[in-house]
Amino acid sequence: MDIDSLTKGIGLVSNTITTLKKLKELIPSGDKKQDIEQNLEEAEKNIKIAEAEIAKGFNFQLCYRHFPPGIMLEIAPFKSKCNTCGNVEDYDS
């Protein structure tokens, strides 16, 4: 397992938690809808990046046809499909 990738993933999850705490502070004001939406988008992006980094740490193949990268799930021997965009790739062991 690649410890650096796992550490990056955990760090991104921590950043997401911080972002969600900021979001919680904004909700009562009522006039901050745009700020809330921006924070939600940032949190979602961070979670997706963290997911990819953690998957990479566990040696999952990633799809780089988009950002953040999607996790490639094995659908048959030597064939994977992107969990995000549906891209299918053949590979040798």
Secondary structural class: alpha+beta
Low-confidence runs? none
Between the first and last Cα atoms, what is the distance in angstroms? Answer: 17 Å
- CA radius of gyration is 16 Å
Task: Indicate how many domains the architecture comprises.
Answer: 2
Tell me the strand order in the biggest sheet.
1-2-3-4
Shape: elongated
Question: What is the H-and-E element order?
Answer: HHEEEE
Report the average pLDDT across residues.
81
Q: Helicity level, as a percent range?
A: 40-55%
Short description:
This protein is of the alpha+beta class. The protein is 53% helix and 17% strand. The two termini are 17 Å apart.
Structure notes:
The protein has 93 residues and is an alpha+beta fold. The protein has two domains: 1-58; 60-93. It has helices at 3-26, 33-57; strands at residues 62-63, 70-76, 79-82, 88-90. Strands 1-2-3-4 form a four-stranded antiparallel β-sheet. Helix 1 (3-26) packs antiparallel against helix 2. The longest helix has 25 residues, at 33-57. The two termini are 17 Å apart.
